[in-house]
Amino acid sequence: MSDDELPDFGSPEGEVTTAAGVPFPRMRANPRLAEAWAARVEHHNRRASASYKFQSPAASVDELIKLRTMPVLPLPPSWTRTARRVRAYPRDVVGIVGSQGGGKTSFAIQWLLGAIGRGHPGLWAALELTPPEIDTRIVGNMHGVHASTVRDSWPRSKIDHSLAAIVDSWHYVDKTPRREGPEKQIAAMRAAISVAWEVYRMPPVTVVDHIGKLTIGTRDRHAATTEALEMLRELAEDTDSIVLALSQGSRANQGVLTGRVDVDSASDAMGVAADSRAFEEDCSYVIALAVFKADDKLRLDVHALFTKCRHTGLEGREGFQFSKPGGQWFELDHLPATPSEIKAEGAREKREKHRVAPPRNTEQIRVDLNASRAGDAAAMRRAKILEAVRRHGALGIAYHDLRRQPGVGKGALFAHELQELVRTGSVERTSSNRVRMIASNL
Fold first, then answer.
1. Domain locations along the chain
2. What are residue 136's phi and psi, to 5 degrees?
3. How far apart are CA 21 and CA 23, in angstroms?
């Protein structure tokens, strides 16, 4: 099953049923054993002055139901394919890994703006860039302009007007002196999260930009980063909040993060993090941003590698474009060509002895490959729409039911493909807001 055919997470089509759910159908719990266990645990705690629980799985159900009442971390509305892969809950840590200048901060800003728009308070631990520098990037992301333009030429009134939308929901965590160690910085985050819970009654989202700054100056950076991530995980669990931890990629894997080296699957790129073992252990999700940089290019192709997806299990990759003006991220419905693929295509053309036209340059190959992949994705969506409509016969299918079919696309993509099918006379929309095949095509 291809990525386009995967059902939405949590939909009935995504459920897996099995007869092995209950291995022993006649097995029943013995209440006497449960009572004896509780009595012995209490006796042991009195003797050892301890407070162990040793609880059964059933004792955690109340906590599960409590967590169910807390909202899932929302993503920007246009990131529909990413939302299928990432379903972060309170107590989760999400790791975002990228190369230097690879758009990690802008990615987190756009994500946090989307969360604030859905009612979540946002906290930002500005450990690398200062709050004024983050301000310019927030405004730039909102308006699609360079942060330097906002910094140098925008009047204060215009900046204040842009930030007014988030002034009550976005707060910076104070940066503590480096000599006091990461514990003091984590304590400041804990205090800010506590205030956010008291004011908003919603799980706050805390961005740590970036985690390497928590461990600077330590003798063993690897051990210190592992400890810092563990403290962030405990912070998320203790405060019922969500943490986005940004990290630089390891120098040994820069080829993966720049697209110079291809990986067969996204999970093969797990080692891109500078401290990959710590990210594997403490993060519920790890997203590696592989940005294909090019000199003087303002819009870059990206593969977002979802190398760990604890709750959805949908490891894989999604295509993005990263616009340097504004640091804006645009999700694509296809995977753009990697530099290694473009290079291989150019080498193939140069080897053709009977080629009439001159070989294309690198940029032409990139544009043509991406256009071909975008066209293939659109054709696949139209085929899925036609298949769903034809399956429902002469009466057709309700518009809202058609939108929920796997593989037909989301939002504007779905609307565009349906409009194209109507324009070409393949389907029609009825007055009762149903979509059906035109009689000659049945």
1. 31-67, 80-332, 344-441
2. -65, -35
3. 6
More confident residue, 252 or 304: 304
DSSP conformational letter for 270? G
Give me the architecture of the 80-332 domain, per CATH: 3-Layer(aba) Sandwich (3.40)
The CB density around residue 380, as the number of other CB atoms within 10 Å, is 19
Beta strands across the sheet bearing 170-173? 170-173, 122-126, 205-209, 242-248, 93-98, 285-292, 299-309, 316-323, 328-331
Over residues 307-348, the pLDDT tens digits come to 889 998 899 899 999 999 999 999 998 999 988 888 888 888
Q: What token pair was written down for 367?
A: 């544009």
Assess whether the previous peptide bond of 44 is cis (omega < 30° from 0). Answer: no
DSSP sequence for 134-195? HHHHHHHHHHT--HHHHHHH--HHHHHHHHTTTTTTEEEEPPPPGGGHHHHHHHHHHHHHHH
CB under 8 A, 24+ apart: contacts of 187-191? 188/125, 189/123, 189/125, 189/235, 190/235, 190/238, 190/239
Average pLDDT of the residues in 373-386: 91
**b/e map of 349-375 (b: 16 or more CB within 10 Å)?**
eeeeeeeeeeeeeeeebbeebbeebee
Q: Judge whether residue 302 has pLDDT over 90.
A: yes
Of 204, 231, 192, 236, which Cα lies nearest the Cα of 215?
Answer: 231
Please give the structure tokens belonging to residue 332: 């694509």
Residue identified by tokens 């002055």 is: 49
Closest C-alpha to 223, from 262, 274, 288: 274
What pLDDT is attached to residue 340? 87
Which of 242, 241, 210 is CA-nearest to residue 228? 210
CATH for the 344-441 domain, from 3.20.190.10, 1.10.10.10, 3.30.420.10, 3.10.50.40: 1.10.10.10
Question: Which among 339, 362, 338 is positioned nearest to 350, based on CA atoms?
Answer: 362
Cα separation, 52 vs 194, in Å, equals 26
- The type of residue at 260 is R
Nearest to 169 by CA among 190, 138, 137: 138
Give the DSSP H/E element, type plus range, for residue 305.
Answer: strand 299-309
Please write the tens of the pLDDT for every residue from 131-144: 999 999 999 999 99
> DSSP assignment, residue 202?
S
Beta bridge partners of 130: none
- List residues bridging with 291 in a β-sheet: 302
